[in-house]
Amino acid sequence: MSKTKQIAVWDPLVRLFHWTLVLAFSIAYLTEDDFLNLHVLAGYYIAGLLMVRIVWGLIGTKYARFSDFVYAPKIVKQYLKDMLKLKASSYVGHNPAGGAMVVAMLITLSLTVVSGLVTYGAEEQAGPLLAWVRHWNGDLWEELHEFFANLSLSLVVIHIIAVVMSSLLHRENLIRAMWTGYKERQEDES
Ligand code: HEM
Ligand code: HEM
Questions:
Q1: pLDDT single digits (tens) 139-165
Q2: Quick check: 86 pLDDT over 90?
């Protein structure tokens, strides 16, 4: 019988980033304009998380770095084809498609936060960008903000479906790994 070993994959910062992002994104999405103070607070928290995560992507632990999970588009396409044929290989960190999704989510979330900050300045005459954006078109920026928020939500839905599919395909619980930080591997696997 082959032995299994535990590999530390997601460091505490990545896990804290992930699960508090899930919470703050849900709060921001659900509060919209009904509880604007709470909405803005959740939005600021997400802005802080994104900045920390981007820096961590450059200087963080092995599997947290962009260099570990940003692959050439050709490799991502091949991975997706293999996944459709149910024969995609397993990765310790993010797989190529997962890595591309992480980058896409970081970009759409950043655009949501920035457009939210502009809306807050232009429409509510508040927030850190007020001095620059007070005369900008608040309605237009609110539309843009809504668009980016919905785009982020669409990616999140695909993200969750992909995580579940990948977990079933490779018979490993990726959700538990994002919670505990550890993945199980056979002794002879890398
Ligand atoms: C990822 C984080 C965020 C998400 C998911 C999000 C989502 C949304 C959504 C869905 C709406 C409703 C849009 C509409 O129906 O027209 C909205 C409105 C708004 N958001 Fe955000 N938002 C986020 C971050 C922020 C941030 C950082 C700020 C500013 C600091 C902000 C300020 C606003 C403002 C001022 C409105 C318009 C409220 C109104 O006057 O009706 N949002 N947001
Ligand atoms: C409850 C629903 C969710 C589940 C079960 C889930 C699960 C996961 C898992 C298992 C991973 C690691 C993927 C891998 O092994 O390669 C991951 C990564 C990630 N997820 Fe989620 N996720 C959820 C919701 C969200 C939401 C709402 C967002 C964004 C608003 C999000 C953004 C991310 C990001 C940015 C990463 C990359 C983490 C990093 O490298 O720092 N997830 N998620």
A1: 999 999 999 999 999 999 999 999 999
A2: no
Domain count, the chain: 1
Question: What number does the ligand 1 atom closest to the CA of 149 have?
Answer: 5
Residue 183, ligand 2, Cβ within 6 A? no
Contact 92, 185 (CB under 8 A): yes
181 contacts 8 by C-beta, under 8 angstroms: yes
Nearest CA to ligand 2 atom 8: 175
Q: Is the CB of 119 under 6 A from ligand 1?
A: yes
Nearest to 148 by CA among 110, 102, 121, 98: 110
Q: Which residues constitute the domain of residue 150?
A: 4-186
The CATH number that applies at residue 57 is 1.20.950.20
Q: Cβ(46) to ligand 1 under 6 A?
A: yes
User: Which of the listed residues 9, 15, 18 should we mutate to test ligand 2's pocket, taking the one with most ligand atoms within 8 A of CB?
Assistant: 18
DSSP classification of residue 61: -
**Which ligand is the nearest neighbour of the Cα of 109?**
1
d(CA 100, CA 74): 12
Of all ligands present, the nearest one to the C-alpha of 42 is 1
The pTM score is: 0.93
